[in-house]
Amino acid sequence: MQSNKEETVRFKSKHFGGVGALCGALLALVFATQAAAQTNAKCPDDPLPSGYDWTDVKAALENSPFQRGGMIVYHKGEVVYWTGFGWWDGQGCDYFINNHNFNVASLSKTFTAAVAMAVAQDPNVNFSLNDLVKDHITNATSLNASQFDDNGTARLVYDHMTINDLITMMTGHETVSAWPIGLTSCINNPFVSFETCGEDMIAADIAEDDDPNNNSAYVYAPGEAFSYGPMSWQILGLAVANAVNDDFTTILEDYLTGPCNLTDTIVKRPNNEWAAGGFETDLFDGGAFAQALLSGECGNNHTLFNAASLASLNEVTVPLQSGSVPTVSSPIKDLDLDYARGQWVFDQGGSKIYLGVGAWGAVTFYSPDKDWAAYIHLDDHLLTGYIDATDLIIKSGGLADLIDIQANNNP
Q1: Which positions fall inside the Beta-lactamase-related domain (predicted)?
Q2: pTM
Q3: pLDDT the model gives residue 171
């Protein structure tokens, strides 16, 4: 597809002839050079570092149930491998950048968690994980007057729900669907504002506490029950926007995509950003984001997370595998995963793999112990990231194990 600049050059060249044609050709060359430079700046170095053997990784991708996709791997802070596979095998960097930018579904939760964590460490913004939701959305208790049982005393949920409860999805919310599947849902709805949708999610139902010793009219207390879905993220997005006093898209650009040079990462819809599922990215932005989650650094030596924030991001906050956490909703009950902040956690037995998972297969995953980060870029609506892509990564002999081998061979 021709850019607007190239279309302008063609118009000038056609209508002015002679010197105009020469000027037009020169302008076209300048614009083309600029476009190539902008695109190629995202492309990994060629050749890539030597000493690695990615034969088994490529075979695992080609033998996976996914018909097409891409993957990129960082080790010790630099790109050491990237590839297309299936129908996208052999496609070049420019082609990936220009043709394979798409919605990454619930990987958006990891992006939003990163934004919230970055805002929380900003000394110029009064915002922390320990804040109450009502500190930033002041009408929260009037929007939802649900109560929980505190040793026989009824307490208002939003007198106690914190930002940390939102980012760990420990809110106990009944799950909701996004628009248009949920015809009356505000999530992703073009006819609802971002602020209204955040308030609608505060007003949304919280599940009844299933403790037989409690009154059936009481709901789960904040921090008591895991509730996967878009509910807490829309509230989190509004709380962040109110704390910074700006719109969510601008905050994303100021705190993440701008300083990290994620030039092809955006969030939709305009004016009602879908914090839990509306992000779009490409293979190389996804890889750079995975590396930023691992190291806390991105862009031109920008510190996305300080040491305390990085440790907080990686803390296992919801030990789902212990069986001690009530679960209202979860897409991956059959996998041995816990939850941190915006990411799932797989314990390999001494080392951990962190995963940001999208429904269509887009997954960031990284190993702090082995200092590698990876991103698999998938958009498959017949399979699922929660099961198929995650299993491809964490199963015995899967991508995580195979990348571990290469990291071990190149200490």
Answers
A1: 71-276
A2: 0.90
A3: 98
| Helical ranges in 315-398 per DSSP H | 390-394
Residue span of the structural domain in which 22 resides: 1-31
Q: Give 73's pLDDT tier (boundaries 50, 70, 90).
A: very high
Place of tokens 């968690």: 113
Of 72, 84, 70, 78, the closest CA to residue 50 belongs to 78
State the Rg of the chain over Cα. 23
Cβ-contact 298, 111 below 8 angstroms: no
One domain, residues 26 and 127: no
Q: Name the token pair of 374.
A: 């990876």
Structure tokens belonging to residue 161: 């729900």
Domain identity same for 137 and 7: no
What percent of the chain shows pLDDT beyond 90? 84
Number of neighbours of residue 269 by Cβ within 10 angstroms: 15
H/E segment holding residue 55? helix 55-62
Q: Where are the beta strands (DSSP E) in 186-242?
A: 226-227
- Quick one: pLDDT at residue 19? 41
Q: Are 355 and 373 in contact (CB under 8 A)?
A: no
pLDDT-wise least confident of 25-39, 157-171, 291-305, 386-400: 25-39
Position 26: which residue type? L
Task: Based on the fold, state whether residues 12 and 116 are members of the same structural domain.
Answer: no
Amino acid at residue number 209? D
At 168 the pLDDT is 99
Determine, yes or no, domain membership for 57: no
At 120, which amino acid appears?
A
pLDDT in the model for residue 351: 86
Return the closest-CA partner of residue 265 out of 245, 288, 297.
Answer: 288
Of 109 and 41, more confident: 109
> Two tokens at 268?
């939709």
The answer to whether residue 90 scores a pLDDT higher than 50 is yes
- Asked whether residue 23 is assigned to any structural domain, the reply reads yes
What confidence tier does 157 reach under pLDDT thresholds 50, 70, 90?
very high
Q: How many CB atoms lie within 10 A of CB 354?
A: 23
- Examine the domain organization and report whether 224 and 347 are in the same domain: yes
* CA-CA-CA-CA torsion sign (117, 122, 124, 130): positive
Residue 139 lies in a domain: yes
